[in-house]
Amino acid sequence: MAELYDYIIVGAGSAGCVLADRLSADGKNRVLVLEYGGSDRSVFIQMPSALSIPMNTRKYNWQYESEPEPHLNGRRMHAPRGKGLGGSSSINGLVYVRGNPLDFELWQEQGAQGWGYANVLPYFKRAERRDEGGDSYRGSDGPLDTRYGPMRNPLYQAWIDAAAQAGYPITSDINGEQQEGFGRMDMTVRDGARCSAAKAYLRPAMKRPNLAVVAHAMAEEIVMEGKRAVGIRYRRAGQPHVARASREVILSGGPINSPQLLMLSGIGPAAELRRHGIDIVADRPGVGANLQDHLEFYFQVACKQPVSLYPYMNWFAKGLIGAQWLLTRKGLGATNHFESCGFIRSRAGIKYPDIQYHFFPLAVRYDGKSMVEGHGFQAHVSPMRSKSRGSITLRSAVAMDKPVIRFNYMSHPDDWTEMRAGVRLTREIFAQPAFDLFRGEEIAPGADIVTDDQIDAFIREKIESGYHPCGTCKIGAADDPMAVVDSELRVIGVDGLRIVDSSVMPSITTGNLNAPTIMIGEKGADHILGKPLLAPSNAPYYVADNWETAQR
């Protein structure tokens, strides 16, 4: 006997948690959320500074890997995706960056009607409860807590001061009117603990009798009746189940799982479906295409003063930090340590920032797998708008078989130009007087890495993913053959099926993806419920007057 609901949401990630809350809020809609992972209650998820642990733990992470990347010496790139309540918002770096206003203007130009900056800003505001208070740009009474770090380490301010000395602007709020420049970075933290989408949206909603959340449930196929989605086949504890939706099925599995489930259900490129013996329901060549991501390298410098986080990296010190956090929710355990940042343009003629910086007062890989001995600091240098495109395809017609992930990183020559600029512009910032007291030798790339060929070799061997995949089920106009969903996130060519997650982004945003994915969940909920959309904002945004003629 099939279980019957009004709405079925597949995936309790950043967008799925928003939908679970908003769709069940009236107490009438019967809503089912299916999630393959389990609980998010682990101390390693909840303590902000422990972020590298769930990022590397199979219990909380799909632990995907790419196919060998031909332009990166054949390396297989790590592609973590959250598995558990909160999805990737439970294992990410807790960074809150909405993107640049012009990202959303570009979405509109690319066929995502009604997704321009004026349209999406009200949804960013509705989601947010900012510790520092709201204004024309920032929210003050939403479910998602954001705040600044305490900036106690002098290296954070040295980073901002050095950028100013290099001639870059200082911005009071990278998520406000002016993203371009250097300043403080927001994090999703509430009372010293991670504020994931599960904590912000899902857990409060789980008290409602009309919301059911089923963990450890593997969605295997969308149940179709002709061209209409009517339910989900899933497996739990080895047993098959069917849940039926009287209104809609909504995929929120993310940029890898959502296209995989579509293809397993007969919606995708016809040739790919035939290759695996899957009956074609709708030939949508854009399913799994348009895969985008951010790459980043770590520009690492030794520190002459004993002010970095290095002394806290031994197990005894970590234990003390953990104990303090458990008792008080304060101290070094209560921050992600990404407390200052920057957004710059790589050259004249670029209208808005195409390089993002996270500053970190330690020389270590993002996933914590390798650390430089001794005091150091680093900038994560990440070009924002790669022109390379990859794909998600099926490995087999079995849901448990991980899909084939080809990012095709660095396949466009412009990507190499941006990376080289990133090395040289960052080196210039670290050479400023603000770092004179702290600056030791350049650890990476290394002071001897100066020519294009040397930089390219460094990039091929050392570049890492920023873990921001998106775009594999993009929003587009009805006449765009590569569009997968329309502007209301309905899958084109079938009925009763929507996608609400980062896979619908036509192009990647300038920054980390958790904030815009939550925004997509907020706006998507209004589309699903047929509610009037929030009134567009008339808040202005910054574009440098000299962008056509100067890099800064």
Automatic annotation (TrEMBL):
Pfam families found in the cross-reference section: GMC_oxred_C, GMC_oxred_N
Domain Glucose-methanol-choline oxidoreductase N-terminal: 82-105, 254-268
Needed cofactors: FAD
Chain sites annotated for binding FAD: N92, G93, L94, V95
Gene3D superfamilies named among the record's database cross-references: FAD/NAD(P)-binding domain (3.50.50.60), Glucose Oxidase, domain 3 (3.30.560.10)
Keywords, ordered alphabetically: FAD, Flavoprotein, Oxidoreductase
Domain of life: Bacteria
Gene Ontology CC, one term: membrane
Pathway(s) it belongs to: Amine and polyamine biosynthesis; betaine biosynthesis via choline pathway; betaine aldehyde from choline (cytochrome c reductase route): step 1/1
InterPro entries, per database record: BetA, FAD/NAD-bd_sf, GMC_OxRdtase, GMC_OxRdtase_N, GMC_OxRtase_C
GO molecular function, one term: choline dehydrogenase activity
The EC number(s) this enzyme carries: 1.1.99.1
EC supergroup of this enzyme: oxidoreductase
NCBIfam families: betA, PRK02106.1
Protein family membership: Belongs to the GMC oxidoreductase family.
UniProt protein name: Choline dehydrogenase
Lineage: Bacteria, Pseudomonadati, Pseudomonadota, Alphaproteobacteria, Sphingomonadales
